[in-house]
Automatic annotation (TrEMBL):
Protein name (database record): Pantothenate synthetase
Species: Isoptericola halotolerans
Positions of the catalytic residues: 55
Main location: cytoplasm
Gene: panC
Pathway, per record: Cofactor biosynthesis; (R)-pantothenate biosynthesis; (R)-pantothenate from (R)-pantoate and beta-alanine: step 1/1
Classification of source organism: Bacteria, Bacillati, Actinomycetota, Actinomycetes, Micrococcales
Length: 320
């Protein structure tokens, strides 16, 4: 199995597609023997397919992180462990040929696209990774076991691909934090890099699930990014944490066809709600259903205390 080093001067070429552990190991071993510089690295991007420009941003960043002679590996696997009862596992969009064509232009060298029986050869795994308290709040509260399923497959794919660096999108902020904590707490030898959320011109965060939205639902979904921007702007004006929450909540409450699962202003390192007196970095997170489609989004904010130490008008706590 030959996986040639990437040459930036080449025309876009189809990456090598492998579907079994043995063929993956061949591709990894070939690159390890032919990598021209010791500074070249292997970078991995883990996806569930149905790729969009947000995923391709990750791959392009991976190309830069790997170096000109490095190896960029993209995994495509719809992980059953992270889907709950009644979620869209069976209907989740799958189009490997389309995805591979997109990856050719983004600089991927190898695509690992295993089937569930390759990733879980004994069926449902007995031993899984626990996200701990990070997996019990927000997404964990609405999707019990979701982050455990994510971390279990991420750990397995890290073992299988043995990257120097792994890249994840910041749109799934709680997932990114959980992965970073797993790497830190379990002493994994890999660098985790977060990549900024890609948005459409109208502000909607790119997601494979956006394809489920009707035109009217898409217009309603814009309330999510609008609420996050308004909250961040309120923080920049010197409003406290409660006012930031209330501002974002007010916009969501006015939106039609939007049912909010949660809106939270949290510590970006722990995903714990920040207190009313909090100042400094925070993360404003939202999850909502628009029609039958569930969407998530987030925005980094910097909460600045009012200069006179008083509460800012309108700083009442959100009840959402």
């Amino acid at each position: 199995m030959t996986a040639p080093a990437h040459d930036a001067s080449d025309e876009p070429r189809r990456p090598v597609v492998v579907e079994t552990r043995s063929r993956l190991q061949d591709a990894l071993a070939t690159w390890a023997l032919t990598a021209p510089e010791v500074t070249d690295r292997r970078a991995v991007v883990m996806t569930m397919g149905a790729l969009h420009e947000g995923h391709l941003d990750l791959v392009r960043r991976a190309r830069a992180e790997a170096g000109p002679g490095g190896q960029v590996l993209v995994t495509i696997f719809v992980n059953p462990l992270q889907f709950g009862a009644g979620e869209d596992l069976d209907s989740y969009p799958r189009d490997l040929e389309r995805d591979v064509a997109l990856l050719a232009g983004a600089g991927a060298d190898v695509v690992y696209a295993p089937t569930p029986d390759v990733v879980y050869p004994d069926g449902d795994p007995i031993v899984r990774v626990s996200a701990g308290r990070i997996g019990e709040v927000l997404e964990g509260a609405f999707r019990p076991g979701h982050l455990d399923g994510v971390l279990t497959v991420v750990l397995k794919l890290l073992h299988a691909t043995r990257p120097d660096v792994a890249l994840f999108g910041q749109k799934d902020a709680q997932q990114l934090l959980a992965v970073r904590r797993m790497v830190r707490d379990l002493d994994l030898d890999v660098e985790i890099v977060g990549v900024a959320t890609r948005r459409d011109e109208d502000g909607l965060a790119l997601s494979s699930r956006n394809a489920y939205l009707s035109d009217a639902e898409r217009r309603s979904a814009l309330a999510l990014s609008r609420a996050l921007r308004a909250g961040a702007e309120r923080a920049a004006e010197g409003a406290g944490a409660a006012a930031v929450r209330a501002t974002a909540s007010g916009i969501l409450n006015e939106a039609t066809d939007v049912v909010v699962d949660y809106l939270a202003l949290v510590d970006p390192d722990t995903v714990e709600e920040v207190p009313a007196e909090h100042t400094g970095p925070a993360l404003l997170l939202v999850a909502a259903r628009v029609g039958t489609t569930r969407l998530i989004d987030n925005q980094a904010v910097d909460v600045v205390a009012p200069s006179d130490g008083s509460e800012t008008p309108g700083q009442e706590a959100s009840r959402d």
